[in-house]
Amino acid sequence: LIVALCGGAHSIFFFGFFFAILVASFEWGFRAGLAATIVSGLLFIKVISVSGFVGANVEWHRPVVRPVYLMVLGYLMAHWGGVKIKLFRQFSLLKEITTVSPPRQGVDHLIDATLERLRAFYDADAGLLVVAGPDTSEYRLYRVKQSRSTTAAHAEPIPSEMLQVMLMLPPEHAVVSSEGFRGWRRLDYAYDVTKHEPVAAAGHSSKTLTALLDARSFITVPLRSQNQTIGRLYLTAQRRRAFDISDVDFFNQITDHLVPVINSISLVDRLAAEAAEEERQRI
């Protein structure tokens, strides 16, 4: 209204649109910022179409240029606002996950809580964790789903064929795979967590995993302990582009915390079992 009453396309109050876009972007994220940008652009075009072409001395570049850089700068604000909101949510989730789980609740409770928080954060359909047992010869599978019950996840036996496929990727590689619109521009990204650099993605392996997991998108990172891979973390979703390349670093931070805590709780359980066995032998 102020722009319409104070010069239309020439109004200095045009820059007030950016304030609304900034607030929407940095308070509610990318979608809200982009919606504010589009609405602001349409409103400004509506204003200049009514009042901007009145008068003989019209600067014709302003009605054209101003909507353009309103859209461009508005999109950039929405993008960085979305990045800020996402980083803040990731920091909050990482803070929740890094809260030390009481050892008496066991490894199952820790893994179940971590998988469910990750699944809810990304609104994914399922979270899976394949981890080696104490003797590293047998693997256990933990699974949470979107429509899960209130009971905690427990280790499940995993068929050898399924285990072979889920561990078919190189042990140092984290992979993000997402189906594009009608198969267009499929995302296959692989990252070496030991060398900290991108590597050539194995497209055949990604398609095999996509078929096994029955998902359009998935992300997987290795669980490493003492410079060796002891398992893999998976998150799957049916929607396209559910995960991004930047999520690999976040998942690596989670696994870097999760593995030592699992080892610590397992050690406490083993010490308690040995102490109980010694007491039984003494009695």
Q: What labels would you give this structure?
A:
single chain, 283 residues, alpha+beta, seven-stranded antiparallel beta sheet, 8 helices, 7 strands, 52% helix, 17% strand
Tell me about this structure.
- There is one protein chain.
- This protein has 283 residues and is of the alpha+beta class.
- The protein contains eight helices and seven strands; from the N terminus they run H-H-H-H-H-E-E-H-E-E-E-H-E-E-H.
- It has a seven-stranded antiparallel β-sheet, sandwiched between helices.
- Helix 2 (16-28) packs antiparallel against helix 3 (30-52) and helix 4 (61-97) runs antiparallel to helix 5.
- It is elongated and about 95 Å long.
- The termini are far apart.
Outline of the structure:
Helix content is 52%, strand content 17%.
Looking across the biggest beta sheet, what order are the strands in? 2-1-7-6-3-4-5
Mean pLDDT level: 81
List how many beta strands DSSP finds.
7
Q: Tell me the span between the first and last alpha carbons.
A: 88 Å
From the alpha-carbon coordinates, what is the Rg to the nearest angstrom? Answer: 26 Å
- Give the oligomeric state: single chain
| Largest pleated sheet | 7 strands, antiparallel
Poorly predicted regions are none
Order of helices and strands: HHHHHEEHEEEHEEH
User: What shape does the CA trace take?
Assistant: elongated
Strand fraction equals: 15-25%
Work out the helicity level: 40-55%
Number of helical segments with 4 or more residues? 8
Class from helix and strand fractions:
alpha+beta
